[in-house]
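Final report, section 2: Outcomes. Of the targets proposed, Argininosuccinate synthase is the one most frequently requested by collaborating groups, and we therefore present its record in full.
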Amino acid sequence: MAERVVLAYSGGLDTSVAISWIGKETGKEVVAVAIDLGQGGEDMEVVRQRALDCGAVESVVVDARNEFADEYCLPTIKSNALYMNRYPLVSAISRPLIVKHIVAAARDHGGTVVSHGCTGKGNDQVRFEVGFNSLAPDLDVIAPVRDYAWTREKAISFAQENEIPINVTKKSPFSIDQNVWGRAVETGFLEDLWNEPTKDVYSYTEDPTVNFNAPDELIITFDKGRPIAIDGRPVSVLEAIQELNRRAGAQGVGRLDVVEDRLVGIKSREVYEAPGAMVLIRAHEELEHVTLEREQGRFKRHIDQQWAEQVYDGLWYSPLKRSLDAFVNDTQEHVSGEIRLVLHGGSIIVNGRRSQESLYDFNLATYDEGDSFDQSNAKGFVQLHGLSSKIAARRDLDL
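The predicted structure is given below as tokens.
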């Protein structure tokens, strides 16, 4: 059997052309592997067949929707993960799952080389290749788009010259990556930071003014950090994301216009749509405010940021990421309860919280009848708490 290259196949121009190009340049057979992450769009059977038509010796589609939700989206919720406090890691959390299945396919189909369609400017090349090195350091990597400086024009010319059966005449002004967790849009006129996103940029969300007179109130139930019900109806994590994508998307929630710091050292403008992700992270974070002890909560906010940076930087399989996971999972023991919120005009407004694990004590918090807080204890606490600052002030002011 000839040597084989296992290609992470999206069904688009670059990876379709890559099938034929890899075969011609290396003499190796290509096995195409497409991963269903709930991205919608084309039927996955159409994608599978296209890879065969383009020259793949085998074409595989993996339904990883529930796996993605349970093992990648859920940890992101538990970590309240927003890179630069804004981006919910739409693409970043999908790459380690794709890597996992590409490596598995290489083992199953006799692959000695793996391949992806990433450019040299983006973060995804790092996420793929660091992931491959972590799970299968014995496999070589081919990155034709990056290593041979492909442009769209070069890819189209190659497809035409080699009679590759793919429609290359439709030109989208954007580069788009999407899955059930969200949608990322870049390039085109968005590269001018002053240009406002136009209506055709968006797909997962409505204009926030469309349903402005019909706000949507809902209740999300969590059990140990995991969303388990919406409005009392049991849901899987995947179902929770899908329902909130619909409901929050209809209210224009989850639109993000971000200039972010890429790992490779350049700044990039990205427009994201992540309605379900933003609602779940906001609700989960609010429940933590009710159920986590103060010092634990303070420390976890630092860990959440570190977790997001590790994942953004392609280090899903790193030792530090595993250690952060252990801490985060330990903090979720009491993160159970309900959050009521309103989706309206592009905003998420929390207006109710309740939990059997709550650390909120009404009798300590109230200023009315029944107050059980002994205010006489506060005077000494204040004096001791500020004592070191007071001593320093005497010195600095020469009193």
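The longest helix spans residues 294-312.
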